[in-house]
Design brief:
462 residues, mainly alpha, 21 helices
Amino acid sequence: MTDVKPKAESQSDEAEGPDGGWGWVLVGAMFVSTSLVFGLMRSLGIFFVEFVQYFDESAQAISWISSTGLATQQFFSPLGAALCNAYNARVVVMTGGCLAALGLILASQATCLVHLYLTMGVISGLGWGLVFTPMVATVMANFTRRRTLALGLGFSSIGLSSFAFNPLFQLLVEKYTWRGALLILGGLSLNIVPCGALIHPQRRSKAPAKVDPETNPPRASLLQRISSYLELSLLFERPYITYTLGVSLMNVGYFVPYFHLVAHSRQAGFSEYQAAFVMSAAGASDILGRVASGWFSDLGLFRLIHLLSMWTFLAGVFIMLLPVSSLSGSYAALMVISLLYGFSAGALTSVVFAVVPLIVGVERMMGGLGLLQLIESSAGLLGTPLSGFLKDVTGNYVASFMVSGGFLILATLTMATLPHYFSCRDPPPPQKRSLNDKDKGLHSELEQINSLPADTNRREES
């Protein structure tokens, strides 16, 4: 037993990559880029109130702006992963930075909500989708034993930027109006471009399978190549589907406080800067949660899936307590619950992506992350509009936060159905498989479909 374990670990380390080196530079690039993606996205609650007043629309209609951006980012994540598999992550991330900036700059000239849906929602969302997944996968590929800590440090920028961006955006809106503030944010987003330039182009370790044109028609060859780049075979594996469902349910309620907590605080009678500071405090505890969770997870005392379940459950409970804490008008109670929520929300983020290679293997990590973002995009599209709808119906955000927290608790129960969930040890990692074996189920179906016309043609010729 003692001889087998070091050998397995050495093989795993060689397959998964080194710990450190240029990887720490990439952690810095991820730190900046994620702050300009999700840190900025979390702070859009400052603009929520301004949009409601300027366009004179309902909370539900305004909520579709942020939901469209989040859903677009997640929907196009497989495209970013496929482009990285086909070409290289550097060009993809730099292109995404330009699109993210372009969307915000165009949004500053919007005259109706449709313009904001298309600019902040679709264009910037597409750019964010091309940035986030490639940056995360690139950092994960450069770490093995300290992977969760590296992700925690990289994701800590989201909490730091939430702490800094909320009062900053409030100041920009007051000084330059929301149009000037969005224009400045567009210029700020261009900093993603040099972050992408720090990624070293790497030659892919695997290539699409060679296809014999005599046995496989061109259409089957094209579909095989697309399947390889997108890792579509994961859609036929129960552990991956179960985990993706759990993360999707989590995604329904996870972002609701970041979009509506400021509006809820102002509705509870607190001032604009008090409301903004609640989000800033949650962002500060978010930073601590990400780093502490990454460090604690890498100690190996508990399985990552168990830690993820614990943090998800706690985050759901604290979301449900957010409106309760402010019913009495106590700013201190609201602040304490916000701090606890921020810590739990940050802690789960460091773990949620680190679980993916344990389920799909390091070789399929890029495609696994992309498909995960795609599937949960529908949940992200549902979350904040549902919260806004409940606010319009009830007149307050109590039901919104209760339902949102319930989705996170439901996500915990879903992840408990994963194979070997109640085991104290992680199951053996997925073994390396060739492309033909990996996509055997899907490719065989494609070949059968495409072989039908060929067979009929041969019969006609004969």
